[in-house]
Design goal:
By secondary structure, the chain is α+β, with helices and mostly antiparallel strands. The chain has 7 helices and 9 strands. The radius of gyration is 25 Å and the shape is extended.
């Protein structure tokens, strides 16, 4: 068995839960290679289309914290097959994730494609960089036309990723996606209305411009 995500995720208590619920044998006998410790073009393309993701860290007291991160499409960028980065934008200034990462950089991310019911999850080690520490990196991750103010750069060093099944993912659509779909419908309706006017004019034996 080579299943990188489970090799990190599994603990004695998780294995005990698998045994109790009848799935331990399935995973112990898993055949295949799901190392998934390097991003391929498929993951790179998927990440480039995302405008948000969920990020989890753990405090020194052991409490998990999950935060929604959003920005323009592609603000989370693949910098290499094992490295991602993004400009950390100012929020409510509680700095919970920043503080957690300062003590323990282990983090988990979930990236959602709701319309197509796709979900990518990653384990990574995060670090923060001062904006002035690496001007070139800052430039690579900058969002010049976005309203958010970057306070630092955050790098994510990939440990492993995995794709989840689409089960129980409810399709949802952004305002932009809905506008595109509605725009096509509006175009079709306009064409049908024009065709209807032409047909009515033929039936009545008058010019289309005379139809009210």
């Amino acid at each position: 068995m080579t299943y990188g995500f489970l090799e990190i995720a599994s603990t004695p208590s998780i294995k005990a839960a698998q045994a109790m619920n009848g799935s331990a044998q399935h995973w112990s006998e898993f055949q295949g290679d799901r190392t998934f410790d390097r991003l391929t073009q498929s993951e790179t393309d998927f990440i480039a289309q995302r405008d948000s993701f969920y990020m989890a860290t753990v405090s020194s007291m052991g409490w998990p914290y999950i935060q929604h991160r959003g920005g323009p499409i592609g603000f989370l960028r693949v910098l290499g097959e094992k490295t991602l980065g993004f400009a950390d934008l100012r929020g409510n200034r509680q700095y919970i994730n920043v503080g957690n990462i300062g003590a323990d950089g282990r983090t988990a991310l979930i990236l959602m494609d709701y319309p197509n019911r796709r979900r990518l999850k990653l384990y990574a080690r995060a670090e923060t960089r001062d904006l002035q520490e690496d001007p070139h990196l800052h430039q690579c991750l900058a969002l010049p036309n976005y309203r958010g103010k970057a306070e630092r750069v955050m790098l994510l060093h990939l440990e492993v990723f995995d794709w989840n099944c689409p089960q129980h993912i409810t399709p949802r659509f952004t305002e932009t996606e809905l506008a595109q779909a509605v725009g096509l419908i509006s175009q079709r309706m306009s064409a049908l209305e024009e065709e209807n006017r032409r047909l009515r004019s033929l039936i009545r034996g008058v010019a289309p411009g005379d139809i009210v």
